[in-house]
Amino acid sequence: MPYTTIDGVSINYEILGDRGPSMALSPGGRNGYENILPVAKRMAANGYRVLLHDRRNCGASDVSFDPSRSEYQVWADDLDALLRQFAMAPAIIGGSSSGARLALTFARRHPRSVRAMLLWRVTGGNFAATRLAENYYDKYARLAGEGGMAAVCAEEHFAEGIRRRPSNRDRLMALDPKQFIAIMRAWRAPFVAGADLPVIGTSEADLRSIQAPTCIIPGNDLTHGSATGLNAARLMPNAEAHRLNVEDQNVDLVPAEEWYKMVDDIAAIFLDFLSRKVTREAVPAYAAGG
């Protein structure tokens, strides 16, 4: 697997396709980029050059904790550095759930690097903010407080990161648990502050300021309510919302695997949008099995 270095942090990446407009896609949660391959492969098969990477603290990339910026600001700045490193900026920026939050943060911090955005399963509301803050920050702070960094290393997410990149264990164990807890709390604060915003981490003013053409496919569970995606599309000046043929479900989370059963529908919506709103070059006819 190829790696590149950004500010001393090794980032695992892959580029699909060798021609066409540049695109970068990010998965939901803290998943590795393999989680978003179903969509990425369709886009590459239809004439796009797609950058995928494991965000720091995810997948096979290094763990690294920068308390001077929010987690999403760190990820956005890493992505901009990657795009520039590979001469792929400006690019179409997209993602699901946390990948969509990353895309919106990216658009605010690096507007010149954005050609368009493709967002699906957008998150908003108190339920989502509370649930995700527990999953992303609170449980790790508790583990560090109760069992030190050894307990953090043994937790499922970080244990998988260590399995994929063994040097991550030394990086984690080198941290003082108190320092780690302080960073988790620092990252948590702006996250939960977004509970009352239209999208977690993105205010109404922020959404109205984003000029890039944007396609949003709303989600259908309590974490990714359809109303959140539809409202975001109304607030953004150059956005469209396109619902899949799914009903809202009264469950915390519809698994990503269920969504990727509809990958051809997702890709078709995005490809149609790009052909109408963004891409001037001729794009091949949609290849469903790409």
Proportion of beta-strand residues: 5-15%
In order across it, which strands form the biggest sheet?
Answer: 1-2-4-3-5-6-7-8
**What is the typical, i.e. mean, pLDDT?**
94
- State the CATH class of the largest domain: Alpha Beta
What is the element string, with H for helices and E for strands?
EEEHEHEHEHHHHHEHEHH
**Uncertain spans, ≥5 residues at pLDDT below 50?**
282-290
CATH superfamily of the largest domain: Alpha/Beta hydrolase fold, catalytic domain
For the sheet with most strands, the description reads: 8 strands, mixed
Indicate the percent of residues in helices: 40-55%
Number of domains: 2
Shape: globular
Q: What structural class should be given to the helix and strand makeup?
A: alpha/beta
Rg (C-alpha, Å)? 18 Å
Distance between the termini: 22 Å
The CATH topology of the largest domain: Rossmann fold
Number of helices in the DSSP assignment: 11
The total beta strand count reads 8
Tell me the CATH architecture of the largest domain: 3-Layer(aba) Sandwich
